[in-house]
Each structure stands twice: as structure tokens, then as C-alpha cells.
Amino acid sequence: MVRRTDPRSARDSLARIPLFAALSPDQIAALDAACSWRRVDAGAAIIDHQDDGTDVFFVVHGHVRVMIRQPGGQSVILRDIGDGEFFGELAAIDGQPRSAGIQAVTAATVARMPAATFRRAIHDHPPVADQVLGLLAGQVRMLATRVTEFSTLNVRHRLYAELLRQSRPDPREPAHAIISPPPIQADLAARISSHREAVSRELAALTRAGLLDRRRGALVLLDPARLRQLVEEAYAGG
Predict the structure, then answer these.
(1) In terms of domains, do 13 and 123 share one?
(2) Whole-angstrom Cα distance, residue 40 to residue 44?
(3) Cα–Cα separations (whole angstroms), residue 173 to 24, 72, 126, 227
(4) 95 and 42 in a common domain
(5) What positions does the domain Cyclic nucleotide-binding occupy (predicted)?
(6) What is the CATH number of the domain that holds 212?
(7) Residues 188, 222: Cα–Cα separation, whole Å
(8) Shared-domain flag, residues 84 and 195
(9) CATH number of the domain that residue 47 is part of
(10) Which of 150, 178, 197 is the endpoint of a domain?
């Protein structure tokens, strides 16, 4: 469920959004006043793929997910968006239908800004424009990587690449990497365009091979360098 909230709480302000860090309090207040504010329940759809709206949404609190539903009903997860981030900027810039759907993973507070206000903020404030350009460049690079993976790698190696992408160095053991909290297998499958059963099978194979361990609250990649090598070999052989 998506609920409009008015008035906002004292914590609900675009001052929490890094995109606007260079703006003055008065400039932030003007943008706050131009937005409508929503409380979103976990699991609620915020926008749907191919919707024709052009507003931009800022996540003040919470965690949402970018997804595309394929014709057969299977969903592909493109990326997650957390506190301080935003979505909907592509439609605000080009006026085209939404390129993906957005679903709340947790309860969230979002500010909904009209496209004209967003474009004016870009035109009037070069630091805002630079950040938006950087974000768009990052999205292009991310999507190029995903397309290459889908077209070149099989499910096994796509899973390896996704595990490496989600991991970070293990503070207990520098040679290891961890993913915490551990990802849900269905979510991993949606990220690599596969099925939960295939992911479960490949995770079990990694465990038997001594490349993966399950720690309370985390997955541990015991030899991330070896996983990276396997992905690189798959690219070379593809």
C-alpha cells in the first residue's frame, strides 16, 4: 500500500539526499515544498514497468528494488535502491514510459518530485547535474555488464559473477569475502535470470568444492580469486 503523508515528519526532507548536498537550506526547503510524500508498505508496487508517469522518486527512508517482469511471468532484479537514492529520472528526462518497475522491499518513505522541478534543479545547480550524469553513466556501465553476462555466461558463471558483485572483504580473513545478510536464493535467481532450484544446486556444488561456506548471518566466499578466475575463463571460452 502507498499512502500519502501530510504534513511531513521533521526527518522527511530532501536534505537527506546526497544529490542535493550542495544546496542551501532555503533551496532544499523549496524542493521539499514541491514534492508529495508517501509512506510505502513492504511489498507494495510504487511504479509499474511501462507506466507513463514522469515524476522522480527519492527514497528518504527504506529499501526498494528495480525489477522487470518477463512475458512468462518471471521477474529479473536489476538493482536495489536504498536511503538517499532516487529513481524515475529516465522518464523525467525523456518523457518515455518507465523502463522498469519499482517495488518496496521494506517499509519506505519516498518524496515524489514533478519532472519539471527535477529538470530545473539540474539546470540551475551544476553539482546536481554532475551527480545525475555520473549516475546515468554508472547505470549504462552496469547494464552493459549485465547484458554481456547474460549473452556470454551460463547460469553457473552468472551466479559466480553475482556472488562476487554482492560480496565485500571479510574482516576476519582478508583472503575471503562475505555477503551479509545472506541473499535469498529466489532473489539470486531473479538477478541472474534463472530459477531458485538451479541456484540451490550451484550453491551446494560450491560448498562441496570448498569455495563457499555458510556462516550465521552470511555467505562466505572462501576463494573469491578462484571464482573470479572461473568467470574470466568462461568469458574467454564463450
Answers:
(1) yes
(2) 7
(3) 44, 42, 43, 17
(4) yes
(5) 19-122
(6) 1.10.10.10
(7) 19
(8) no
(9) 2.60.120.10
(10) 150
Q: Report the C-alpha gap between 99 and 87 in whole angstroms.
A: 11
What are phi and psi for residue 31, nearest 5 degrees? -70, -40
Domain count, the chain: 2
What does the mean pLDDT of the chain come to? 92
Helices (H), the chain: 25-34, 89-94, 115-124, 126-152, 155-166, 185-191, 196-208, 224-237
Residue at a domain's end among 93, 118, 150: 150
115 neighbors 52 (Cβ within 8 angstroms) = no
| Contact by Cβ (8 Å): 137, 210 | no
Model pLDDT, residue 7: 44
pLDDT, tens only, 130-152? 999 999 999 999 989 999 999 99
Domain range for 71: 2-150
Percentage of the chain lying above the pLDDT 90 cut: 82
pLDDT of 10 higher than 90 = no
Same domain, 127 and 19: yes
Round to whole Å and give the CA distance between 119 and 85. Answer: 17
Q: Which residue has the cell 552493459?
A: 144
Contact 221, 211 (CB under 8 A): yes
- Whether 135 and 24 share a structural domain: yes
Shortest CA distance to 219 belongs to which of 183, 193, 195? 183
